[in-house]
Amino acid sequence: xxxxxxxxxxxxxxxxxxxxxxxxxxxxxxxxxxxxxxxxxxxxxxxxxxxxxxxxxxxxxxxxxxxxxxxxxxxxxxxxxxxxxxxxxxxxxxxxxxxxxxxxxxxxxxxxxxxxxxxxxxxxxxxxxxxxxxxxxxxxxxxxxxxxxxxxxxxxxxxxxxxxxxxxxxxxxxxxxxxxxxxxxxxxxxxxxxxxxxxxxxxxxxxxxxxxxxxxxxxxxxxxxxxxxxxxxxxxxxxxxxxxxxxxxxxxxxxxxxxxxxxxxxxxxxxxxxxxxxxxxxxxxxxxxxxxxxxxxxxxxxxxxxxxxxxxxxxxxxxxxxxxxxxxxxxxxxxxxxxxxxxxxxxxxxxxxxxxxxxxxxxxxxxxxxxxxxxxxxxxxxxxxxxxx
Length: 389
Ligand code: NZQ
Ligand code: ZN
What we know:
By secondary structure, this protein is an alpha/beta fold. It has helices at about 20-25, 40-45, 50-60, 75-85, 100-110, 120-125, 190-205, 215-235, 240-255, 270-280, 285-300, 305-315, 325-340, 360-365, 380-389; strands at about 10-15, 35, 60-65, 90-95, 135-140, 150-155, 160-165, 175-180. It has 15 helices and eight strands. A hairpin with a 4-residue loop joins strand 6 (about 150-155) and strand 7. Bound molecules: 5,6-dihydroxy-NADP and zinc ion (ZN).
């Protein structure tokens, strides 16, 4: 394993009733003005808004509402939230939603106190945060991204047509609350999209050096088997709260930096999906489901040993003495079969794309990561996108 230092500053609460039990006490250490941020209104329909608002009122807080955060949050929405926070002297931000709401609020927590342009200084390139962002607490209502326990925020700059994420430890939420029952109202398609995002995060970390036996990969294999099992369980029985809770915690585990310890990490599939999202606004997990098998067919020969291990240990494919590459390819095809079995999209057409005209520009705008088994070129990404079409 490579050297590492581990720290995670987010205090995490998991389980049914955790918001009711702990939120008031957690907020008592901050000032009166709470920005209550959420998305398009699902929390108003499923009762979460009422529950949270009544806790805030009972604690004597002033609520500053910030609603309408879209999926794939935009930089303009970040600036709108930062203005509102400054005008109302917000003391703490409470993000109630999924990755989009949490990410938008992380960027707001910085933009509200930073005098310059946060896009140019922190998203277009990696910067050093030398101010104290507003404190942020999150209540997760749809799981998958793992944003609740990291400092990552993925923002879309519509003008520049770039969707990009950075992970700043200073943007880690102060606390994260995960009540699986809050996700009961999530539509099944979104639930499996989030779960696939989780699986993707684990794979993107697993398929990278070092490849000798190591603790991070051991945990990753166990988590992958669990996510696959629980995706099957919740698809067979949408009422399965045990699977729902497992998927929620697996999402957090996949992105709270534990799996990445000592690992290089890949995340090229994410780079491709982010640019696909910047051009088409597609659903994150669906985009990943389409891209992963095609991308892995390209890198599999260069990472054959690891893909073979994936086939044997994650998909329990039997080794009858086939050569490494044959087994490795079986692992990739098992993933592709699972995506079909679970009902995730498999082509860009299914994501609503009607022609290939944007593919070249999308491919050309993708960042190339150093951790892939095979360093991509923009031409090869275009081939991959064409295969996905
Ligand atoms: O907006 P509302 O009305 O709340 O509806 C949302 C939205 O339509 C709905 N939803 C949320 N909770 C619900 C619910 N519907 C019914 N009942 C509930 N309890 O779910 C829809 C999707 O929400 P969204 O937050 O957009 O989804 P997700 O959590 O998948 O987040 C996606 C964003 O996170 C970024 C993605 O790129 C994308 O922008 N990511 C963030 C990461 C991070 N910070 O670490 C890592 C990821 O790789 C990812 O890139
Ligand atoms: Zn993701």
